[in-house]
Design a protein that fits this description.
Blueprint (H helix, E strand, L loop, with lengths): L1 H4 L21 H30 L15 H5 L11 H20 L6 H29 L4 H23 L7 H9 L3 H17 L1 H5 L1
Helix pairs in contact: 2-4, 2-6, 5-6, 6-8
């Protein structure tokens, strides 16, 4: 989805010399941030509402609790669902909203300096790292899946890899020329493989259930 929207050509026609100066982004990358931000925000919003319903009524069953494996309720009631002392999706309401704002700013022609792009890189790195931890907890500790969480995972992965591509392209992240060119040419491959690995782990984790 987002990969198809990405414009692989630099927005200003040149790389930032030595990673200096303010640069914008192509329309494709800006739209990718907006789309993935909205996807993550939607997931965080729905999970937050369901969490409130669950607090009001312990017998409440979220609509995405379909079977013993796809069970959002089990995820919401786990200790991992509030690892920072508050429900995890509340963090998503803020961070995904920030990503949407950045993407909209880029669509309007905003240009940012190296420190800003590296800040976005750090934020998306934290996001993909946190999602990886949640994936492990979901598959191997809690033993259940939340479909809205899966949507947030995919959105964060796409967001992270295309932010990385943008920063490598403009020299904000050092990379050999061959790696940079390969990354630009096959920009869709890395997030596709990343998401594919998660899909395979989900498939094999509950293989007996899926095939029964």
């Amino acid at each position: 989805m987002a990969a198809a929207a990405v414009d692989v050509a630099p927005s200003d026609g040149v790389r930032a010399e030595g990673g200096r100066g303010a640069v914008g982004a192509g329309r494709g990358f800006a739209l990718t941030l907006v789309i993935t931000g909205f996807a993550g925000l939607l997931a965080a919003w729905v999970i937050t509402l369901d969490k409130f319903h669950l607090l009001e009524d312990p017998d409440f069953s979220p609509a995405c609790s379909i079977n013993p494996v796809v069970s959002c309720g089990n995820i919401m009631e786990s200790d991992q669902a509030g690892v920072f002392g508050f429900p995890n999706p509340m963090l998503g309401l803020v961070t995904y909203g920030m990503v949407i704002a950045i993407g909209m700013g880029l669509l309007a022609g905003a240009r940012y300096r190296r420190w800003f792009w590296l800040g976005l890189q750090a934020g998306t790195l934290f996001g993909v790292g946190f999602c990886t931890w949640l994936q492990y907890q979901s598959l191997y500790e809690i033993g259940a899946l939340c479909l809205w969480c899966c949507l947030a995972w995919v959105a964060t992965i796409v967001m992270f890899w295309y932010t990385t591509l943008h920063n490598v392209r403009h020299g904000f992240l050092p990379a050999p020329e061959g790696v940079r060119r390969t990354f630009e040419e096959f920009h869709w491959l890395v997030p596709a493989v990343h998401i594919g690995i998660i899909g395979m782990l989900i498939l094999t984790r509950w293989w007996d259930f899926w095939t029964s």
